[in-house]
Structure formats: C-alpha cells, structure tokens
Amino acid sequence: MRRVTFDLDVLRTYVLGVELGSFARAADRLGRSTSAVSAQLKKLEDQAGTPLLHKAGRGLAMTDAGETLLGYARRMLELNDEAATAIRGADLEGWVRLGLQEDFGEGLLQEVLGQFARAHPKVRVEVRIARNPELLERVTSGRLDLALAWAGNQGTPHAERLGEVPMCWIGAEHRDPPLPTGEPLPLIALEAPCLLRTAATNALDGAGIPWRVAITSPSLAGIWAGVSAGLGVTVRTPIGLPPGLRVLDADSSSLPPLPSLALMLHRSDEALSSVAARLAEILRGQVGALIDAGSLPHGQNRMHKGTTVREPA
C-alpha cells in the first residue's frame, strides 16, 4: 500500500474552507488566489486517492471520505500547532489565573489545560469556576488574569468577542418534553440573576406562553438533574451538554425561538504577561474549534456532508 504524507498547509486550507463555508473566503483569509486554493484542493484529492468534494448545485459538498478526513485534519493541525507552541515557549515560567463559566468546566477546561501544560510544564495555572458576575468582578479587581464568560449587561475594560453560540431549549433525551398546553411550562433555571433564565422568560412572555419555575438551582448540576428527570425544560447553549439531554427543536415543540449569546474573553490588563498571552492564544483556538466543529446544532457555523459551499472561481 502506498504511504501517503499529507501536506499540512493544504490540510489547513481544506479545514478553513469547510469552517468558513466557502473556499473563496478561505483564499481571501489566507491571502492566496482562488486558483491557488483550487490547486491545493486538487493536490489533496490526489494525495487521498479519492474524491473529497463533489459538485452540489453551484457549490461543493464533502463526500464521506472528505468528512472523515476533516476530523483527522483538525487533529493533525492541532498537534502541529501545539508542537510549534511548545518549542517556542519551552522555557516559559510563572503562573496565570483563569476564570471559566460552569459550561466550560469539563470538556473545554480539560482540553485547554492539557494543551497548555504539555507546552509549558513550568507554568502554574490556577482556575476559578464561577458565574458571570463573580468572574467579571475578579478580573476587574485583578484577582483573575483571564476569564471566559457570556456577554451581558456587565463588561470589563479589556475584553474581546470570541464568537456567538445559540441558546437552546434543552430537554431529556428519552422523555417527551412538557410542551406548552395551556398549563404553565415548568422551567428549570439557575438562581437569578441569570442571562439564560432571563432569555427564557422573555421568550415565553413574548410568545404568550405561561410558565412557572419548577426548580431553581445554584449550579448546573442541579439543572441537568432536574431536566434528566423530566421535571421541566431549561435554556442553555449546546456547550457542555451532558449525555441523556438533547436540544429541543423550537418549531416541533411549540417553544419560542431564542437569540444567540456572545462569548467574551476578559483580560485584567490591556497588555498581558507572556504566560497569560500564551494561555489566551490557546483559549481562542479551542473556543474557535468548539464553535466551528462540534458544540452546535446542525447547520450552525459549520459545513456538513451534503451542505454546499462556495468553490473558488
């Protein structure tokens, strides 16, 4: 069997084109001509020995092989970038304090800290899991260097928008949700004030759907337990959704649509230390991957097999 060595530069173009939903936009982002990107895609298919894309109307769509390669390409590029970061910062020392919402306390935190620790074993990281108001207060007072939090009424002087995530109605996977039937809809939510709780009640009020708070919890664990038991529905994002729960389709469940929620990276100072700057870089990459490639419902910010994208001219 012929041994194939994929070109990482070509894989990066492929992944970017898929994530942007347009290889023409990928060419613009990379500063290349569309003909150069077309040549890269042809080279990638030659290396793979099978079609990765096929015509779909006026655009392109991934084949089964193309979808399979996409997952491997992301992993290869992540490992490549991690190796480059580790070489550049092998002697980095110090400590950094990071704050996160509970939504990111498992999957994202594990990925970020694992990648950071492998690249910078001499750096000590302290993590605080808390809700938005506490995270922002700690950043403002200098007790956190970085904090990943939802955008709301509060802010900090030094913050950047990393992207948007849809808010969703969440119900138990193997239970019929308590649909609006004239009786108040049982709602499960965090203690007020809570951005997602407010979004849920505003949406229900706007749709004229009566509701009642069935469970109030100080933590996400209580929310997930109540929803899993079929005691009500909640509003969260798809990030960190545990097994046994599912995103409810708003139309089929007669629930009102919900807005998206911006994700912000807050900094204690405009100029970060080299240690904090490196952690922020890893956070941006992991959050971007999370938004583009795995946390969102079908059709949100990512291309699936059978979804057309613009091809280079």
Poorly predicted tracts of residues: 293-308
What's the mean pLDDT score? Answer: 84
| Rounded radius of gyration (Å) | 22 Å
The helix-and-strand class reads alpha/beta
Q: Which geometry do the CA atoms define?
A: globular
Percent range of helical residues: 25-40%
Strand content: 15-25%
User: How does the major sheet shape up?
Assistant: 5 strands, mixed
| N-to-C CA distance | 35 Å
Number of helices: 9
Listing every helix as H and every strand as E from the N terminus to the C terminus, the arrangement reads: HHHEEHEHEHEEEEHEHEEEH
- Please count the beta strands (DSSP E, at least 2 residues each): 12
Spatial arrangement of strands, main beta sheet = 4-3-5-12-6
If you had to describe this structure to a student in words, what would you say it looks like?
It comes from Marinobacter halodurans. This is LysR family transcriptional regulator. Belongs to the LysR transcriptional regulatory family. Residues 6-63 form the HTH lysR-type domain. The protein has 313 residues and is an alpha/beta fold. Helices cover 40% and strands 22% of the residues. It is built from nine helices and twelve strands. The strands form four sheets. It has a five-stranded mixed β-sheet, sandwiched between helices. Helix 1 (8-20) crosses helix 3 (34-48). The longest helix is centred in the N-terminal third of the chain and has 25 residues, at 64-88.
